[in-house]
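Q: Convert this sequence to structure tokens.
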Amino acid sequence: MRGGALAVEGDRVRLRRRGRPKFVPRLQERSFDAARALRAGKRLFYVTPVGLFRATSRGLALAAVMPGIDVERDVLGVAACPIRLPRGGAVPELPRALVDGAGRPWRRSGEQR
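A:
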């Protein structure tokens, strides 16, 4: 989303203000051809603050969601184009460490080991 506001609350992400969807049904200008990449056997993912999306031959699919994001309200309810869900409809949640850094193997800038 463009122009929205997210907040980190502990190990969860909360959508504070909705913005405009980044995924749209039609582009004004195309700098990358996802269909061509898929035909060439490439796996194509889009990482956003709300989740992980995968391009498929049948369209865009939500592969995983950030902890705290409500799939119906925060993704499907604001999408400007169709987004597929995994079979059965249950979308896996990404690891909470992506939000709060718990158990992280990396250091924050300026942090001592």
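The longest strand covers residues 59-65.
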